[in-house]
Amino acid sequence: MDKKIVDQFSEFEIPSYEQWRDLTEQSLKGASFEKRLITETYEGILLQPMYRKEDAATLPFLQSLPGMAPFTRGTKTLINGWEINQEINVGIPTSFNKVARHDLSKGQTSLNIVLDTPTKRGINANEATSEVGKAGLSISGVTDVAGALKDIDFGNVPFHVSAGANSLPILALIIAHLEQSGRQVEELHGCIGMDPLAELVESGALAYELEDCYTLMADITKWANENTPHLQTVLIHGNVYHDGGSSTVEELAFSLSTGVEYLQALTSQGIDINKAASSIRFSFSIGSGYFMEIAKLRAARTLWARIVETFGGNEEAQKMTMHARTSAWTKTVFDPYVNMLRATTEAFSAAVGGADSIHVSCFDEAIQKSTAFSRRIARNASIILKEEAHIARTIDPAGGSWYVEVLTNEVAKKTWGLFQETERKGGIFQSLIKEFPQNLVQQTASKRVGNIASRKDIFVGTNMYVNIEEKGIDWLAIDEASQIDDHINKVKGRAHRPVASLAAIPNKTEASIQVAKQGASLGEIAEATGRRSESVVSVKAIRPTRGAIQFEQLRQTINENAEKAGNRPKVFLANLGPISDHKVRADFAAGFFEVGGFDVIQNNGFTSAKEAADAAIASNAGIVIICGKDEDYQQTAIPLARSIKKADAQITVLLAGKPSEVDEIRFKEAGIAEFAHAGSNCYDVLSQLLDKKGVAAL
């Protein structure tokens, strides 16, 4: 800034924090500063209304630079780029190939292969017909891999494959295809990642002994270090906790504890700590808390560097590789185009936070498989952030923000405390056996669900500001049913090649590749390397869900009932006085009921209780809500409610507002059943009304 301008400002005294707070408290007119201006997050962190230089002055990582330990500010020194790593969940190999080649030609820079459930569990398509191709790509043999990866440039396109507990057969089939095609296996780079604990957490069961999984993990990692040095072999999913409703701290702490367990498993089997740590990639979900998510990624790098350093890893090994996926929890079925905005802001957080690769979820993710249109919109969001907003040109864009720096430190401290508690319980696996993570995530999820139900947490278009007349999306996914049947029949027609047990063979990965080249199937390799026909390890699962699902089910109930009955449940607004007297509460009441899909009957107000009662009864609405000023309620609400109940006792009467305890008793005695106000549990109120009206919930 020009010195002359600076000198002009010098005549003004710089106010102290205490002076600012005194003025702020005066403006609150007696309201509590703490209650009005300090926000407690799900992580137990108190967000202040203002942050100052003094708040961040003593933070231990503040003087570090991007690319330097502890990597709070990022692992890169020149650019802040990321791989555009969009998930491709097409089920049939040839169809997958067509989509993959198209998307890679339109700006996608990494091949993110989503596998269907049978493939991830080591089961051939012909043995698991109900789930084949539904959630992703179905692979049962080298033929399927060849069809899916035809003309893909392995040397220039990194892979990202989440393989659960079953990565060895998948890796073996991919390598077998490469070798049969005359390609150099060292070209393969990216991550074909194993994470048995994520599969255990999400499904509650594992068809492998955990020690067998760790033996396979070490074997794969040794093979990869020798043959595909740029391929990571472990992919830790914090997503399984996030999608169950966890806090940021819980997602990070349990992911880091998983990382420690895997490091111990790898190093105990002779793998150098530097190679073990460099073989691990993390995947985190990015939610709607913009600054919290930035802080999460920065804290994750800091803590992982500390963990690897404790294991004896060098500075290069301390660098965390992280993939970010925009949240599934925050996406909605209704008003799905809002999902474009949600996903874009979440991706913005991931980019600013320094993610190495990003998947931006398709806006129709909660409804169907992705389409060409939804994939294009999602892909372009990442391209725009990188190429037009130039986020990639700035290293650690959030660095130096006192708010972000303090928040990063708070997240790191909270996470480290929970991580240590998890380790004291014996590590992540023993903690899962004791249901420690499950119980914490359930508690947080319950808080979230309660806040969504009472509309403290807002989902635009679902629990607030809805359009009950909205139509379904225009772009529908292609029905793959007939193609899936053909695919299953082709798998059935392949020759069965029994594979002898590979359990006692030292180099299981190389042996699996050789039998794959000879025609062994995914399922045969999985069985030969330890997969059981039934689960052998089980814990209480953390099931993935979405925050808006309860309201979606409520609205779907009314929609289906409306199709059968020919109309929606009606709500009549008994507005008292002129528009200026009732509009605020009438608008609130209309929005309150519309989130459930009710048909709201509005009007310009009534001058007497009798006039309002007559209109309410004539409307044939089963629900009436009285809207007006508190003063009008004292004179009009009781006779109005009594008149309505006298004419038809089946009509349910509500009142918009929160009366005093004394008035509430009086109003209820007059027949008013419920009160709708900003603190109401909207979901519970609407659900109970449906029950009273005989509409069964889904």
Automatic annotation (TrEMBL):
The entry's keywords: Cobalamin, Cobalt, Isomerase
Superkingdom per UniProt: Bacteria
Record domain Methylmalonyl-CoA mutase alpha/beta chain catalytic: where: 41-529
GO molecular function: cobalamin binding; metal ion binding; methylmalonyl-CoA mutase activity
GO BP annotations, alphabetical order: propionate metabolic process, methylmalonyl pathway
One CC-aspect GO term: cytoplasm
The protein's required cofactors: adenosylcob(III)alamin
InterPro entries with a match to the protein in the record: Cbl-dep_enz_cat, Cobalamin-bd_sf, MeMalonylCoA_mutase_a/b_cat, MMCoA_mutase_a_cat
Protein family: Belongs to the methylmalonyl-CoA mutase family.
Protein known as: Methylmalonyl-CoA mutase family protein
Protein species of origin: Peribacillus simplex
Classification lineage: Bacteria, Bacillati, Bacillota, Bacilli, Bacillales
